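Tutorial handout. Part one gives the primary structure; part two gives the three-dimensional structure as tokens.
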Amino acid sequence: MKLSAQQLARLGRLLDEVVGADAGQRERWLQALPAAQRDLEPALREALWPPAGRADAGEAAAALPRIGGEGGEGGEGGEGDATSAAGGLQPGDRVGPYRLARPLGAGGMAEVWLAQRADGAFRREVALKMPARRERRADLAPRFEIERDILAALEHPHIARFYDAGVSDDGRPYLALEYVPGSHLLPWADAQRLGIRARIALFLQVLEAVQYAHDRGVLHRDLKPSNVLVTDAGQVRLLDFGVARFVERAAQAELTAIYGPALTPGYASPEQKQGRRVDAASDVYSLGVVLYELLAGRTPHESPGGAPDPGRAPPPPSARVDAAAAELRGGSTAARLARALRGDLDAIVLKALAPSPADRYASAAAFARDLRSHLAHEPVGAVPRTLRDRAGRFVARHRAAVAQAAVVAVLVAGAGVVVMHRAPEDRRPPPAASAAAPAAPAVAADPSIAVLPFADLSEQRDQGHFADGLAEELINRLTRSPSLRVIARTSAFAFRDTNDDARSIGAALGVAWLLQGSVRTSGSTLRVTARLVRASDGSQGWSRTYDRERADLFRVQDEIAGNVAHVLQAVLVERPVEPGLKAPDLDAYNLLLQGDVYANGPFERDAERAQILFRQAAALDPGYALPWARLAMLHMRQARGSPSTRHEANALARRAIDTALRIEPDSMAARAARFHHALRVEHRWADARAELDRMRAIDPADALLLPECEAAFAHAAGRLDEAVRIQGRIVERDPLNASAVGTLAAYLLDGDRFDESLALLRRAQQINPHAAGSHALAGVNLALLGRGEEALAEIARERHDGHRAWAASVAYWTLGRRGESDAALAALAKDPATHAYPVARLQALRGRKAAAFEWLDRACGERQGGCEALRADRFLRGLRNDPRYAALLARMKLDGDPGASRP
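Part two.
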């Protein structure tokens, strides 16, 4: 009987009800099935009374083991305790394209093996996860397929990554997951002798991963220290999400429903133990147990792994510490450790462990907010605050400022001075005035517009990329008006699927007009609706519907852009078109748009999909240069992220650029890719300058690619003021682009404008809290401002190992903590193929010139990232008068006068 995903989900939940029943009880249970479940009776009978050769009736229930205790599944990495495989597998066995190396762990539901790719496609070690059962069930393969699809959607730096899935020759389904060498949470923290603040910082990574999963409807249901691995660099990987996810999703099946509920008694919530409905609060409870043990060294219950009493809260962590736990927590004493836990941390942990779900934190994010507030000496929600306590915390956070304020207060009081603060001027252009006639609206002196994502109204809602491509092309065309200020794609598209009205969007983006629209495609027909909306009051200034053939798409784009420009009294500058060029094939254009969607994704799999789509577009239309330019930029990004394939990826990028330029010598996208390759990969200054000059000659009005290249060139030339000015204009046009804002912050840091850089980084973090390097750069600014302890707390939030180690070394050095600074430097130096340039910066900071030049020689000889910034990098200033610096620039062909960039 073939079941749908919905039926499989119901089947799993029903089997949970009868898994422990004997044959007679199972029969009576089946007879009493409600009418709504009768469609599953044949499948239930097959599961409970399998055909001969699979299991007899007396063994059916026994074939459905439950997960419990501390055995778990071993995990997708680390070194498990497994000594034998439950399913009869042996090292060297082949499972799909993988060869088994050794068992990593086994439990009631699954066994996990370390395996290597054995088909020659590529080299990769994985954790191979398979059902830990000798029996074969026909429903396991589709269940694993569903788990595969859902795991593929859980992409997060602190969740073990999904790679592959399939069925072995003997019918055993498997999942190939990221192999994470490391230790489980508690042993790792103890081995490092982490103090309380460091343990909280580690736990915050766990909370971030859990909240990410909750946001996508995923409940873990088996959170415990053995399901959290920590790498040598201190990065968390959360394991075993696949099974838990399906329990609460009615639309999808759950593999573990066959095996019973997945839980570990010592970490399960009271409602989970009692078989009641669970939600995010249940995971919060399990997280509370984990934090309790991480802080106090013991579980909240009388014995490790003991079952909780649903009717009462456990004792606070501060009451359970002993000398052994204190020694492992930074060499403290039991009394000092108890004092550190008493108060906020006791309250936070006990709130998470409240017997009633309604009394716990509403989410992992709320749990994390209280912990971060504690680290920042701010009030926490778990504890009601008195005025005296709030005042004490303010002083703790701002001791120097409070002392200075007290002095100022005395002086002001004695002199009778009154200080007046002038409100900052509003530099935003005023909104356009209302007009009586929509066809001829009043236009602001500085007209500004944002093109919002067009809605996909196609029947299958599968043309989102097509709608986005239309809106993006309109942005590109409208930027060709020197009298229009057009918000860039990243910022405008931030308002996708929001309910914000025109006023709030206009205020957020600082524009007077919004262009909205929709796209409906059906076969070869196309309907595009566009409307111009006044941001000040939401009134409509112009609208039109275009019913055309899909082949007329490019003409429709021209018409819409021209109509908008006419209404806003703007003039569009046409870019000269090279003779012989034609509009691209529409299907190739569509493939390009789909590739663009994946090219901007953060994961390896996204890049692989984008590469395939770009190559398909290029093959479909050999006269289309843009797919090759996109491929080139994609390969360069891959090169920066993978030292082992850097040279190969950069060579592929160069070949793609050459192909694009053969097709269209005046392609701005290809010229921009050639510029970046010359500057960042080949380190050929003259070639980069020549490409920039060529771009200015081709299209001096370009407002997309040209400014970015000009800013990068000015920065590399050491002309920081010019780089800041150009990048500032980019940020003005793209205010919600965290990358653009972060780049401007980096330029300001090189110019020693630390306060301005820090303010921009705070803004970038609000836009994208997960951007790699943001917290590290903010921490370096704080350190260089003399706020070292704040810097360390900020740097601890950085998720990228390399950025975090580099920034920590800078901060420790400014604090005079030389040993810790050197330790962070040594961690970077272990991977010279990736981190040679940041190690050189740290050696220059220390004044160790010989070591700095040694590392620079390696970094630049291997064309590692960063070397193009030699002239601007503030950390290398002490090297510039050394003859070895000039010799290095000469070897890299970055010497001489770089010439002036356009202001």
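Part three, for discussion. The mean pLDDT is 76. The first helix runs from residue 5 to 18.
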